[in-house]
Amino acid sequence: MIQATLSPDLIDRFAAITGPAHALTAESDIAPYLVESRGLYHGTSPLVLRPGSVEEVSKILALATETRTAIVPQGGNTGHVGGAAPREGAMDVVLSLSRLNRIRDIDPVGNVVVADSGCVLAEIQKAAEAVDRLFPLSLGSEGSCQIGGNLSTNAGGTAVLAYGNMRQLCLGLEVVLPTGEVWNGLRRLKKDNTGYDLRDLFIGAEGTLGVITGAVLKLFPRPLGHEVAFAGLKSVADALTLFERASSRCGTALTGFELMPRLGVDFTTRHIPGVRDPLASRHDWYVLVDISTSDAPETAARMMEALLAEGIEAGLVDDAVIAASEEQRRALWHMRESMSPAQKPEGGSIKHDVSVPVSAIPAFMAEADAAVMKAIDGARICSFGHMGDGNIHYNISQPVGADTAAFLGRWREINDLVHGIVLRYGGSISAEHGIGQLKRDELAAVRAPIEMDLMARVKRAFDPAGIMNPGKVVRG
Amino acid sequence: MIQATLSPDLIDRFAAITGPAHALTAESDIAPYLVESRGLYHGTSPLVLRPGSVEEVSKILALATETRTAIVPQGGNTGHVGGAAPREGAMDVVLSLSRLNRIRDIDPVGNVVVADSGCVLAEIQKAAEAVDRLFPLSLGSEGSCQIGGNLSTNAGGTAVLAYGNMRQLCLGLEVVLPTGEVWNGLRRLKKDNTGYDLRDLFIGAEGTLGVITGAVLKLFPRPLGHEVAFAGLKSVADALTLFERASSRCGTALTGFELMPRLGVDFTTRHIPGVRDPLASRHDWYVLVDISTSDAPETAARMMEALLAEGIEAGLVDDAVIAASEEQRRALWHMRESMSPAQKPEGGSIKHDVSVPVSAIPAFMAEADAAVMKAIDGARICSFGHMGDGNIHYNISQPVGADTAAFLGRWREINDLVHGIVLRYGGSISAEHGIGQLKRDELAAVRAPIEMDLMARVKRAFDPAGIMNPGKVVRG
C-alpha cells in the first residue's frame, strides 16, 4: 500500500540523495511541476527531486520502494493526458529528469546518438544536424519536451509516415527499475533476437514500470531534396485517394500527408500572426504534402510535380501551390501546427486524439460529424491531422456565443460519442497522446478484460510495490 | 510442475478436441515433427495435434493448463535453434498450426493482410502480389516457413534494411493464452498508444508466452524500379564505406546490402548448380547491392549507376556488374542465398548468427578471424550476411581433410570464442534466429541477472503453469 503522507524525516532522506539544492519543497518552487500545459490537471506534491545522475535515480527509487513512496517521473511536462502530473490530493514525489541532459555519444557512421533521457528533443535534433544527420522525431513542443517523455509516451508527431514513431526510432534503453536496479539495454543493434522485448515494454508505459534514464536513438541521412505543397480539395474521400496515389508513387519519400478543414484555415488566418491562406480560392478541405528524398533534390521536385499533376488531372485536386523556398515550406507547416492553438481564441474545445485504419477515415469522419452536429447544435468541428497515419485530432470548437463552461461540461459525453464510432471502425481512443489519468478508466471500459488483465500482470511483475506513477494507464 | 507422462486417457481428451484424424500418435506420423531441418535437434513426443480453428487451439491450451501438459507450438519447422522442436526425452505435445492457413482478409487500400498464423510465407507474398502490393519479408525458407513462426522468432531475412524485421511488419496479433483465453489484438492501426505493448512481447517470444493464431501484416506499394549489382572489393572496410555512401545516397531505397567472401563465391560456384562468378577477375570480398524505388524505374537505375561510379572513383569498388534482367537479378540473389547450403559439401561447419553495430563490422571480423585461425589451424571462414543490418552469419568450414566429428565437437568452444568478441563490440549472440534450446544457457550466462530476472517475471506472469514451450528461451 502506497503511503498517504510523507514525513519530514523521509523528505530529508530523499533530499540527502540529490543534495538539498535539488530537492524542492517550497510551494513556489514546486508549482511549475504540478500543472499540465493544457490545464486539465492540477496535482499536489510535497517534494520535487531533480537527480543529477543515474545513480541518484537508482537510490531514489530504492528508497521509494523501501518506504512505499509514490514516484511520478516527469520530463518536459508537455503531456496532454495527466501522465506526468502528480495526482490531486495525493503525496506523490515528482522525479524530474531535467538535469540528466547530456548527450553521451553521437556516431554518424553507426547512425546512432546515445542520450540521457532529460535531453530536450530540439537539442537532439541539433546534435544530429551538427554531424550531418537527421533525428526525425518532430512535434509542436520539441523546444521543451524531453526524449524520456517522448519514449514513455511513444511520441508520434509529423514524420511518422516515413520514419515511424518513437518506438521505431529507439534501438536501446537504460531503465532504473522500482527497486533501484538498473537495466542496461543500451544496445546499438538493428537486429537482436535474444529473448523478450523489454525495450518495447518500457516504451509507451508512461513511467509506470520504471524510469528511463538513457536511450540509443537512430539517426538518418539528411534528405537532399525537400518539397512541401498545399492543395485544396472537395472532400476527405478525395484526400484519401490522393494519399493512396502519393503513397504508391513516393513510398517512404512521402514524409508527411496532413489533412486540414476549411474551418482550421479560417481559424489560423484569423488568429495566428503571419499565417495567410496560400491559395486564392476557398476549398472545403486541404492537404499538406511533404516529400523528402535522399538521392537528389530533383527527385523530390519531380515526385511532387507529378503527384499534383496527376491529382489535378484526376479531379482530386482543385488548386495547389508548391513552396518555393525554405521560408515558404516553414510557413505551410506553421499553419498546420497552429491548428490547435488557433482554436483557443474561439472558446472551449473538446478534443480527441484518435486513429482508425487509414481507409476508414472518410466514413469515420462523416459518421462522427453527423453525430456531433446532432448532439450540439452549431458545433464547429475542426478535425485535422496525420491522415497518412490514420490519426485525426478530432477537435470540436464551441458554437459561436455558447457558454464555454457548459460546453466543456459535455467533454465526457462527446468523448463517449466519438470514441464509440472510433471503436466501431476498429480504431484507437488514443493514437499518440497516451492514457495517463485522462483515459485510464475509459481504456478499461473499452478493452477486453483479458487485455487489461495482461497489462495488470505486467505492472505487478515489474512494480510489485506499486510506487511507479500510480493511477496512470492501469489502476494501481 | 509439468507432468512427465501422458496417459492414454489424456491423449483421448486432446484428440477429442481436434478429432482423431488430426491427433497423430503413430511413430511414423509424428516423426517429421520431431526433427529440425538443420539436424541439431531430435525431440520426442507422444502426440501431435493439428487444430483446425482458433477455438480448438483455445480448448487444447485450456486442457493443457488444467493437466499441466507441455505444449510446443510449431509452424513450418524451419528454425535453427531448437525452438519449435519438442525436447528430447520429455512428453511434449506438438501443436502444429499448419491447418490454420487461411488468409482472412486482404485490403490493398488500407495496405494490410489479415492471416492465420499457419499461412506459409510464400502464400502471403503471392496474395499481396495478386492485389499489386508487396509483403517484403523474404528468406530462404519462405516456401515452407509459416507466418506464426516468423512472428514468434521476429524473422529478419533479406529486406530488413528498408522494411525492418517482422516486428516492424506486424500491426496486430491474435494470441491464445495458456489458459485458453483469446487476446484479440488484431488492430490495423499505425498509431495506437493505449497501454503496454503486448504485441511486441509475443513477437519474438518463440511460443513461450502463448500461441499466435492470427496477425495483421503491413503491405507496401510494389516498387517500380529494381536494380541489383554485384561488386568486387578489396576489404570489409571498403565494403563498409561503400555501404555508408549507398545508405546516404539511397535512403530507404537501399533494400539490400549483402557481404560475401571470396571463399563463399568459390563454394557456391563449385557446388550449386547454375551458379557462376559474374565477374571476370577474382576479388577478396563482394557485395550484393539491391535498390528498389517506388516512383519510377529510372530512379533506381540512376541511383545504382551513380553509386557504383562513385565507388569505383573512390577506389572502393574494383569491378562491378549490374543485372540486366529479372533472371540475372534472381541469379545474383540465388548465389547469396546459396552461401550456407554450399558449405555442406565442404564438410562440417560451425555457425554463428551474430550482430554488431554496423560500424564495428570490420574490426569485429578481423579480430574474430585471427582468434579462429589461431584456435583451428586451416579453418575456412565463410562469413557473409546482411552487412547493412550489422548481421553476419559467421560460419566456419572445417579444414580440408579434417575429421568432421572432431571439428564439430569444438562447436561450443568456438561459439564462446566468437561470441566473446561479439559481446565486447556490444553485439548480439543471436541476431535473427532466436534463442530456442541452442542458446538458452548461453544467454543466461552473458546477460545481466536483472535482464534474465525481468524475462522470468514476464514468463511467470503470462504462463504461471509453465506449459508453453518449456525449456526454450528462459529456464522453465
Report on this model:
Two copies of one chain form a homodimer. By secondary structure, chain A is of the alpha+beta class. The model of chain A has no long low-confidence stretch (mean pLDDT 95).
Any key phrases for this structure?
homodimer, 476 residues, Alpha-Beta Plaits, eight-stranded antiparallel sheet, 17 helices, Uridine Diphospho-n-acetylenolpyruvylglucosamine Reductase, domain 3
In short:
Chains A, B: Its cofactor is FAD. Chains A, B: GO terms for molecular function: catalytic activity; FAD binding. With 476 residues, the first copy, chain A, is an alpha+beta fold.
Write the layout of secondary structure elements.
The structure is a homodimer of 476-residue chains.
Chain A: H1 8-18, E1 23-24, H2 27-30, E2 47-49, H3 54-67, E3 71-74, E4 93-96, E5 103-107, E6 112-116, H4 121-130, E7 133-134, H5 147-152, H6 160-163, H7 166-169, E8 170-176, E9 182-185, H8 198-202, E10 211-218, E11 220-221, E12 225-233, H9 236-250, E13 254-261, H10 262-271, E14 285-293, H11 297-313, E15 317-322, H12 326-337, E16 349-350, E17 353-355, H13 361-375, E18 380-386, E19 391-397, H14 404-408, H15 411-424, H16 440-446, H17 449-462
Parallel strand pairs in A: 2-4, 3-4
Antiparallel strand pairs in A: 1-2, 5-6, 6-10, 7-11, 8-9, 8-10, 12-14, 12-15, 13-14, 13-18, 16-19, 17-19, 18-19
Helix pairs in contact in A: 1-3, 13-15
